[in-house]
Amino acid sequence: LTKEYLAMQKSAPPFVWASPDEKNILNWHYILRGPPDSPYHGGEYYGLLTFPSDYPFKPPGIKMFTPSGRFQPDKKICTSMSDYHPGTWNPAWSVATILTGLLSFMLSDEITTGSITTTDLDKKMFAKKS
């Protein structure tokens, strides 16, 4: 995870920021910024990745705390890159890959555990409030 932090500092993916907690490197704080041409434009969405001690061999838990109109705040999010689906996890995936995938998933309309359904207008309202 230390190597991944250094890589994120050098070249973070677009619209993504992440940093480990100062007291526990297994907890990473992240912010996803809403891309232009999306209902999330202008929004900043804070969340937490919780890595198991045997990462990268097992996936992290993923939560988002900022209301977005896409995910339930403070609830685990179910994706193929989260601890909901350890069977689909790939140890080659990095923090950058996870957060880029989460942003892509956020922009989709796919329904899963931890997601909610709202209108684009609602999402734009949440973006302004974030």
UniProtKB/TrEMBL annotation:
Residues 1-130 form the UBC core domain. The lineage of its organism: Eukaryota, Fungi, Dikarya, Basidiomycota, Agaricomycotina. PANTHER family: UBIQUITIN-CONJUGATING ENZYME E2. PROSITE patterns: UBC_2. InterPro entries: Ub_conjugating_enzyme, UBC, UBQ-conjugating_enzyme/RWD. SUPFAM superfamilies: UBC-like. It comes from Dacryopinax primogenitus (strain DJM 731). Keywords: Ubl conjugation pathway. Gene3D superfamilies: Ubiquitin Conjugating Enzyme. This is UBC-like protein.
